[in-house]
Design brief:
The protein has about 425 residues and is of the alpha+beta class. Helix content is about 30%, strand content about 15%. It has eleven helices and 17 strands. The strands form six sheets. The chain has a seven-stranded antiparallel sheet, with helices on both faces. Helix 2 packs antiparallel against helix 11 and helix 3 packs parallel to helix 7. The longest helix has 22 residues.
Length: about 425
């Protein structure tokens, strides 16, 4: 039998090709994997992620987490550490499900842009064209003395302003409008709600705005309104639209508004960290922070009727990686195209301009390095967002890289592990 001797160059090329083929094969099965070196990352340097996460676990600042780094379409780092449930002695697993809260917002924004691409509306259309309750909005005025009052706004909220959080809406923690939101029964998605998204948004529409639309940036319930807009325009519930138009095409089999009974055991336990008390299991009753009241059992207990487009989803690191990879590849993944490349470009460039001199924000994503120099490792144009219960993701088109950090902790006591994770992902780039 004749033997074939390959040159050193040919052997290197063969190893590289096998790594790429292995990555693509794994991607087709659901989760891409490759050796760090084959995608320009250092395995040794990636281990720093595990070391720092373990440090915070050992110091009882965190129960556990799942971290993931992908580059060039392949996952090079994917690690579960600590405990999913400390009290039950249940280790964290790679397929653990996490409350991703505001990481729902980019998904809702993608849904809106999918409908936009179908010619259903223009971004500068007033939302009242589809949700008439927002017609003739009013703005809150707080005089130096006396009771606050509302005056007619000089313009209406547009779909673009909802996508950029410049609508004049806010959240329950706002000192001027939070109490009114609570009194009106407006939901934010992190607490049980006995109603549907239509009920919630119509109640919100009846309240004054914090400022005239387009005047400034205020993180808000704007994307919850967009979730209802998806329902009105598509004729489908937001849950059904997500499932049929986004999750099934992308293979996101573990992303849900409300967990099926058979998946509840995979939901990571939520914890709190308070000075003087340390790390504690989230209490059985909701936590109240002024007018903002939130729970941890909403993914599996209660009416399960509200599909909160701004906060309601739970997911896994592997599922969310597929969503991120779709964005990184210009709106498509594994032959499934959700968006055009041009829409992704529009969504991931700063839309605030002079409205906010410091914050870069696109259509559903925060954008880094646009308004000034980077303050940490990264690339200009890197985009991403985080979630209330300590989850975070970033997508870097320049480095062709995705990073996902998943934990379940609020309040965090000032823990900065999510941002350190991002730095450690970048310092592992060696090509």
């Amino acid at each position: 039998m004749n033997s074939v001797v390959l040159s050193r160059g040919a052997r290197v090329l063969l190893v590289f090709w096998l790594a790429i083929v292995g990555c693509l094969t794994a991607f087709a099965q659901g989760l891409p994997t490759a050796s760090p070196e084959s995608v320009g990352l250092s395995a040794q340097r990636l281990e720093r992620i595990g070391a720092i996460v373990q440090r915070d676990i050992d110091e009882n600042r965190l129960s556990g987490s799942v971290t993931l780094v992908a580059r060039k379409g392949c996952v090079a780092w994917f690690k579960a550490q600590g405990m999913m449930d400390k009290e039950a002695g249940k280790p964290m697993k790679p397929d653990a499900i996490f409350r991703i809260c505001s990481m729902t917002k980019p998904i809702t924004s993608v849904a809106i842009m999918m409908l936009y691409e179908e010619g259903r509306f223009l971004l500068n259309d007033p939302v009242s064209k589809f949700i008439p309750e927002f017609k003739n909005p009013k703005v809150l005025v707080r005089p130096p003395s006396g009771e606050p009052y509302a005056v007619p706004a000089n313009k209406e909220i547009t779909i673009r302003q909802l996508l950029t959080h410049t609508s004049g809406l806010t959240y329950h923690w706002n000192p001027d409008l939070g109490a009114r939101y609570k009194e009106a029964g407006v939901a934010h998605g992190l607490l049980q709600y006995n109603g549907k998204i239509a009920d919630n948004i119509k109640a919100l529409a009846g309240l004054p705005l914090l400022f005239p639309p387009g005047e400034r940036y205020e993180y808000s319930l704007s994307v919850d309104v967009l979730g209802y807009l998806v329902e009105v325009v598509s004729g489908m519930s937001l849950d059904e639209f997500f499932r049929k138009r986004i999750f099934e095409p992308l293979g996101m089999k573990d992303t849900h508004f409300y967990l099926p009974d058979e998946k509840t055991a995979r939901l990571a336990t939520a914890y709190t960290w308070y000075a003087g008390k340390g790390l504690k299991r989230f209490p059985d009753e909701p936590i109240a922070e002024g007018a903002f009241v939130y729970s941890a059992d909403y993914p599996y207990r209660g009416p399960k009727s509200l599909y909160a487009g701004g906060a309601g989803l739970s997911s896994t690191a592997a599922d969310y990686a597929r969503f991120c990879q779709m964005m990184l590849e210009g709106g498509k993944l594994d032959g499934a195209r959700l968006l055009s490349r041009k829409s992704v470009e529009l969504m991931t460039q700063d839309q605030l301009g002079k409205i906010n001199a410091d914050t870069g924000f696109g259509l559903g994503f925060g954008v880094a390095g646009i308004k000034g120099p980077l303050t940490e490792l990264g690339s200009p144009g890197r985009y991403g967002w985080g979630g209330f219960y300590y989850t975070y993701f970033f997508i870097d088109p320049k480095e062709n890289m995705v990073g996902i950090f998943m934990a379940q902790l609020h309040p965090t006591g000032g823990l900065s592990l999510d941002r350190i994770f991002e730095n450690l992902a970048y310092q592992a780039v060696v090509d």
